[in-house]
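In the previous lecture we treated proteins in isolation. Real proteins rarely work alone, and many bind small molecules. This record shows how such a complex is specified: first the sequence, then the SMILES for S-adenosylmethionine.
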Amino acid sequence: MPRDLLAPGLAGYLDSLVPPRHPVLAEMEAEAARTGFPIIGPATGHLCYLLARAIGARRVFELGSGFGYSTAWFAKAVRENGGGTVHHVVWDQALSDSARTYLTAMDLADIVEFRTGEAVATLRDTAGPFDLIFNDIDKAGYPASLEVIAAKLRPGSLLLVDNLLWSGRVLDPADRTPDTEGVRTLTRLVGADPHWISSVIPVRDGLMVAYRSGIA
Ligand SMILES: C[S@@+](CC[C@H](N)C(=O)[O-])C[C@H]1O[C@@H](n2cnc3c(N)ncnc32)[C@H](O)[C@@H]1O
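The predicted 3D structure, ligand included, written as tokens:
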């Protein structure tokens, strides 16, 4: 698990500010804590939900969905926005099955398309455009995913990318691992491209929020 990037206690404080949530979300948080599975957690989940609500997202695509925790936040937003589809994509069938069980228990499964396979290839093969794309795949794959993502977003849509602070490893010049370099490269590419207006929000492990401006 990433170490606490904020002053000690602040990450927990931000999580504590998230309003009471569906008991199934709390169950998923307990599973993640028990197994060490890297979910986005309450504060980032709630921020994703807020952003999806704010733009009225009805077509959402998630790359690297795990057992459905982040999916549940997006599906709740899409339901409240009037309905639509959240594509849940992960390469493990067991995680996909587990996500279906959780989302069914939350009465949100009808909003979700459960897909198994490599996430970027799946997005390439899916008709767009999307209102919001969330990227949480293996970090070495971040740079190559960007071109596919950009082609599936319309002006006025949002790209959210998790782990852009990467437990602080982005600051270590000796760390040239493919994952750390993947995070750095994506950050640089989005920041330098006038089609995006972006910011990295230092919540948990860093969430990039990038607005597809349509202005070149
Ligand atoms: C960080 S976890 C996802 C957590 C999830 N977003 C959440 O917060 O609930 C990433 C998951 O996506 C899978 N994954 C990573 N890269 C992938 C790829 N390129 N295609 C499909 N699945 C991928 C991993 O095996 C893992 O199960």
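Summary for your notes: The CA atoms of residues 143 and 186 lie 5 Å apart. The radius of gyration is 16 Å.
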